[in-house]
Design a protein that fits this description.
- There is one protein chain.
- The protein is an alpha+beta fold.
- The chain has one domain: Histidine kinase-like ATPase, C-terminal domain (Heat Shock Protein 90).
- 36% of the residues lie in helices and 26% in strands.
- It is built from four helices and five strands; from the N terminus they run E-H-H-E-E-H-H-E-E.
- Strands 1-2-3-5-4 form a five-stranded antiparallel sheet, with helices on one face.
- Helix 1 runs antiparallel to helix 2 and helix 2 runs antiparallel to helix 4.
- The longest helix is centred in the middle third of the chain and has 21 residues.
Length: 140
């Protein structure tokens, strides 16, 4: 297992509420994930900048799954007791962390994700991977 930031100790099982959806491998999967997340966050009364940050991170993770993996994509959100949000995207692809060359060719999405998250990382094996991030509670 490889992670960056904080190890996977704030798993979804520690959340007070969770939401999950399976996404089809489709060019609009990231858009569909954002729409789904917006509805889940609204149900939890999470709006504004915190909701926007979750949507950015989720969209980046889903886009990376579309680009670097194959098979199914599952998105999961968890509401942490302290008000933060856990974002996870699971796919059926190998755990291959993006390199500096990937970032030069495709943008800076993972750098933005790292900047928005308190902790973030990825883990997996030859046949699956998970990108995850813990975002802070809403700023007052």
């Amino acid at each position: 297992m490889t992670t960056t930031g904080h190890p996977v100790t704030t798993a979804l099982s520690a959340c007070t509420a969770t939401a999950r959806t399976d996404l089809a491998r489709h060019p609009r999967a990231a858009r569909r994930a954002r729409t789904w997340a917006r509805a889940a966050l609204c149900h939890w009364q999470i709006t504004g900048e915190q909701a926007s940050d979750v949507e950015v991170v989720l969209s980046e993770f889903v886009t990376n799954s579309l680009l670097h993996a194959c098979g199914g994509i599952r998105a999961e959100l968890g509401l942490l007791s302290a008000g933060g949000i856990r974002v996870e995207v699971h796919d059926d692809g190998p755990a291959a962390q993006c390199t500096r060359a990937d970032q030069e060719d495709h943008g800076r999405g993972l750098q933005i994700t790292t900047a928005l998250a308190v902790h973030s990382g990825w883990d997996g094996a030859a046949d699956h991977s998970t990108a995850w991030a813990t975002l802070p509670a809403a700023r007052l």
